[in-house]
Amino acid sequence: MKISGSELLVKALVEEKVQHLFGFPGGVVIPIFDALYARPEIKVILTRHEQGAVHAADGYARSTGRTGVCLVTSGPGATNTVTGLATANFDSVPIVCFTGQVARHMIGNDAFQEADIVGITRPITKHNYLVMERQDLGRIIKEAFTLASSGRPGPVLVDLPVDVVRELGDAEYPASVSIRGYNPVTKGHAGQIRKAAHALKKAERPLFYAGGGIHIAGAAEVFRRVVARTGVPVVSSLMGIGSLPGDHPLDLGMLGMHGTYQSNLAVTHSDLLFAVGTRFDDRATGDLSKFAPGAAIVHIDIDPVSISRNVPVGIPIVGDARTVLEQLEPLLAPCAIQPWLERIAGWRSEHPLAVSPAGRRLLTPDTIIRAICDLYPEAIVATEVGQNQMWTALFYRFRHSRSLLTSGGLGTMGYGFPAAIGAQLGNPGRKVIDIAGDGSIQMNIQELATAVHHGLPVIVAILNNGYLGMVRQWQQLFYRGRYSSTCLMTGTECPPSCPGPGDACPVYTPDFVKLAEAYGALGYRVAQEEDIRPVLREAGQSRKKPVLIDFIVEREFNVFPMVAPGAGIMEMMFGEEGGR
Ligand SMILES: Cc1ncc(C[n+]2csc(CCOP(=O)(O)OP(=O)(O)O)c2C)c(N)n1
Ligand SMILES: [Mg+2]
What we know:
Helix content is about 35%, strand content about 15%. By secondary structure, it is of the alpha/beta class. It has three domains: about 5-170, Thiamin diphosphate (ThDP)-binding fold, Pyr/PP domains (Rossmann fold, 3-Layer(aba) Sandwich); about 190-350, TPP-binding domain (Rossmann fold); about 365-560, Thiamin diphosphate (ThDP)-binding fold, Pyr/PP domains (Rossmann fold). Helix 1 (about 5-15) packs across helix 2, helix 16 (about 365-375) packs across helix 17 (about 385-395) and helix 16 packs parallel to helix 22. The chain binds thiamine diphosphate and magnesium ion. Magnesium ion binds near residues 439, 465, 468 and 469.
C-alpha cells in the first residue's frame, strides 16, 4: 500500500512514541498538520511563536530525557526556530525539528516563504537534511531520531518540500538505521579508566568537576555512588548543577564567573581535577592560564572534540558518562584526603554565600529564591538569562538530576518560560517554576496563551528590577555606572544622563499582573517580604492556570561573587551584604 509523505511522517512519530509535538502551521505544512488531525496518540501543542515551540520541545527533552519534536512552516516559520535550535545545540539537547519547504522545483527561485533553512542552520544543528526524494523520507526520519538522541545529543532539522510530503510512496518506516561514519563510542578504554582510578587514589587534593553530560547520560545515580565511595568533593558547571544534591556536604556549588568561593579556590588548589561531561566553558574557567594550575586533569566525555579543546587533558576517556562511571566504580576506594576537606571547609566558612538579612525594606532576589526552594524543594526550575539565572544557580538547592532548565551555552533570554511549558507537559506531576527576569520574560511572554489553553499551572516568578540587570551590573562595575540602554523604564521624560533610579522614573510597563489577567492567567504582585511565602503558597494551589508573580526587587542588587571577565577564577569580587 502506498501512503503520502505526511502519513509516513505521522506513522514515524507514532513508532518513535512521540506523545507531544510543538508546532505552528503555515501553507506548506498544512498537509502534515492535516495528517495529525484527530490523532489521539500525538498531542499537538500550538505555541504562539516558533521560538516558543523549539524551547518547549527543549524543556520537554531536558526534563524527561526523551527527544523533543517540533513542526513549523517554511520561510519565517523556519527562521524563527534558529535561536531555539542554537540554544539546544549548545547544550546538547535532543530535538527533531521538521520544517516545511517550498516545492522542489521552486527551491532557489525566491519562492514565496522560501528560506534556505538547511544552509542557515548547518552550524547550529547536530545535523540537518533536505528531503529531495519521497523514497528517502522514512530512512531520513529514522536517522534524524537516531542522531538527535545518541552520542552527544543535539537538534536535527528535517526540511520537507511540500510536494515530497504530498507524494505517495512506500509505507515502510525502518526499525533501525546504520549511519555511515557515525559510531559514537560509549564504553571507555579500560586502560585509561584504570589510570584515572589510580590518579584518584594517589591524589591529595582531588576534585570532581561535574558537567551537564551527567544529566544527559542519565549518570547522576552512578556519579552519586562514585562520590560517596571516594569521598571526593564536587564542583559543577551551570549545566552540571544537581548532579549531587545541593545540600550534600561534598557539594561545593558552581565554579566560574559567578561560582562560589570554595569552588573557585578548590579548583585553583586541586592536584587532580576529574571532569565528567563538560566543555570547560570560558564562563567556568576564566583566564585559562590561571585555571587549575597545579592539577592533572582527567576528562570523561562522549565528544572527543570537547577533550583538550580549551584545557590540556592528561587522562582523556572518550565514552558515555554513565557507562564509563559504571566501569570506574568497582576500581575505586575511599580517598584519604582529610586535610584537603578541612581546607575546603575553611574556605566555605571564610566566604559563605552572602544572604540578605530578614526585614529589609526592599525585596532581595536571594530571599525570594530561598523561599521558592523551601516551599518547592522538588521542583523543576527553569530560568531566563541574566542575574535571575545566576541567583537561581547559587540559591536554589537542586536535589534531582534534570531539574534545572537553563540556557547555558548560548545564554538565550526568553528560553525559560517556554521550556517550563514543555517540562510541565512532560512531567504533569511535578511543580514547574520559571525564575525570570523582567527583561527576558518579555521575549516569549506570548506563550502565556499556550499555557492557559493547555491548563498548565507553571509558576513564573519575575524578579522585577526594572533593568536588564546583568548588563547593568557590568556597566556599574566596569563602565563607570553609565546605564546605557539597560533601564527598562527609559523614556522620553528621562534626562540624557540618568542620575539613577528614583521617584522621577517613568511608570514601569507592562503591568505584569494585568498582562497575566489579560491572558487568563493568575497574576500577583509582591513588594513586601511578609507576602513572599503566602503568595508562593497560593500560587502552588493552582491546578489548571499558569500563575505569574511580579516580585518588585531592589533595583541595583548585584550577583556576587563575581570574577571580572578575563580574570582568573580565584580573583573574586564580593559585594557588601551580598548584593551591593
Ligand atoms: C536574546 C538575548 N539578548 C541579549 C542578551 C544579553 N543579556 C544577557 S543578560 C541580559 C539582561 C537580562 O535582563 P533580565 O531578564 O531583566 O534579567 P536580570 O539580569 O535583570 O535578572 C541581557 C540583555 C541575551 N543573553 N539574550
Ligand atoms: Mg531585570
